[in-house]
Amino acid sequence: MRLIESILGFSILVAFFLLGAFLHKVGLPIPGGVLGLILFYLALSCGVVKLKWVERAAGIMLRHMVLLFVPLTVGLMEMGPVLSRQALAITASLLVSLAAVLLTTGLLGQRLLPAMRHEEAPSAEASR
Amino acid sequence: MSLTLILRHPAASIALTLLAYALAVVLHRRWRWVPPIVAACLPIVALLLLIREPYATYNLGGNTLTWLLGPATVGLAVPMFRNGKLLRRSLPMLAVVVLAGSVVGMVTAGVTAWLLGAPLPVVMSAVPKSVTTPIAIEVSRELNGIPQITIAMVILAGVLGASFGRPLLRLAGVRDYRAIGAAIGTASHGVGTASLLRRSELQATVSSWAMAAAGVFTSLLAVLLKLCLR
């Protein structure tokens, strides 16, 4: 049963991805995966898709997402020249921007969020 | 000779990738500091160099796995939806905060690379570097960047943010939990979020929501950027 449940969930994810990819093809400039995400979020919010149909499949995909970007990352093996020529620009851009995002979001969050009521969070989910 | 012929079959690259990934997971369980992505890629690169096959041969099968990043992106809606329900009242403000962080991240990454004389494709590869890998790859492609460079930057943003994010925020006087969660999720996506999970569930919930929201905002903002450049 678990396997069937995962396969059903996976099919739903693929269907939403294909829908997003189709809308991207016919002219919407947002990437297909993100369009699929937005549509899927709406479908969950209005109850067209039940969370329990997709929970297991999405959990598996998110937990093992690293597997899915291995092939592209292996492609770095042919980028040696670009990487070494642009090493300074890439490193500096990474560090400056990382610090800027952390500080902007953190300081602004500190200013704006405490006004809200404290809420309990019984569970959390992380994914890569 | 015949061995190389078998290895050229697309199924062989898929099997090789699965095997390397399984090995990487085992290594990561044993030694926490080994990043799975590095442990999975190194043996594949070593093998390709050893048998003198170009990346293109390997990627015939590799492509199949890359395609699955699309449905995985869709799957991000699940934690976003679940955590969104828990954070209901804070969501509008949280969205504003994450949006601001995303804009700052894209602008500072692009401008810094550009000021240091990087060519346009490298500048564009830097722009989506804060968001989760599958979305960053798509945005990089849309902007005519180089997805491989984006991936390398995304991974580093995750690892560095997970280790130095909290100390930096503490130094700047950020103490509110949700502010810390929002900052780490916006800057260091899933890798940062996973690092918070061990400390506080509420923080990780905020971070997980922020990560998905930053991905969506960044792809929408990239559309604007593309229109401005045209």
Largest interface: A-B, 85 and 128 residues
What kind of sheet is the major sheet of chain B? none
Quote the average pLDDT of chain A.
Answer: 86
The number of helical segments of chain B is 12
Q: Tell me the span between the first and last alpha carbons of chain B.
A: 50 Å
Backbone shape of chain A: extended
Q: On the 0-100 scale, what is the average pLDDT of chain B?
A: 90
The structural class of chain A is mainly alpha
Q: What is the tally of helical segments of chain A?
A: 7
Largest sheet of chain A: none
Poorly predicted runs of 5 or more residues of chain A: 119-128
Structural class of chain B: mainly alpha
Low-confidence stretches of chain B: none
Strand content of chain A: under 5%
Rg of chain A over CA atoms, rounded to whole Å, is 20 Å
Order of helices and strands of chain A: HHHHHHH
Helices and strands, with pairings:
The complex is a heterodimer of chains A (128) and B (230).
Chain A: H1 2-25, H2 32-45, H3 51-63, H4 65-68, H5 70-74, H6 80-85, H7 87-112
Helix pairs in contact in A: 1-2, 1-3
Chain B: H1 2-7, H2 10-30, H3 36-50, H4 55-67, H5 69-75, H6 77-86, H7 91-115, H8 120-126, H9 133-142, H10 147-171, H11 177-197, H12 201-229
Features:
heterodimer; A: mainly alpha; disordered C terminus; B: 230 residues; mainly alpha; 2 domains
Summarize the structure.
With 128 residues, chain A is mainly α. Chain A has helices at 2-25, 32-45, 51-63, 65-68, 70-74, 80-85, 87-112. The chains are: A mainly alpha (128), B mainly alpha (230).
What does this molecule look like?
The complex is a heterodimer of chains A (128) and B (230). Chain A has 128 residues and is an all-alpha fold. Chain A is built from 7 helices and no strands. Chain A has a domain at 1-68. In chain A, helix 1 crosses helix 2 and helix 1 (2-25) crosses helix 3 (51-63). Chain A is extended, with a radius of gyration of 20 Å. Residues 119-128 of chain A have low confidence and may be disordered. With 230 residues, chain B is mostly helical. In chain B, 82% of the residues lie in helices and 0% in strands. Chain B contains 12 helices and no strands. Chain B is globular. The model of chain B has no long low-confidence stretch (mean pLDDT 90). At the A-B interface, helix 1, helix 2, helix 3, helix 4 and helix 5 of A face helix 2, helix 3, helix 4, helix 5 and helix 6 of B.
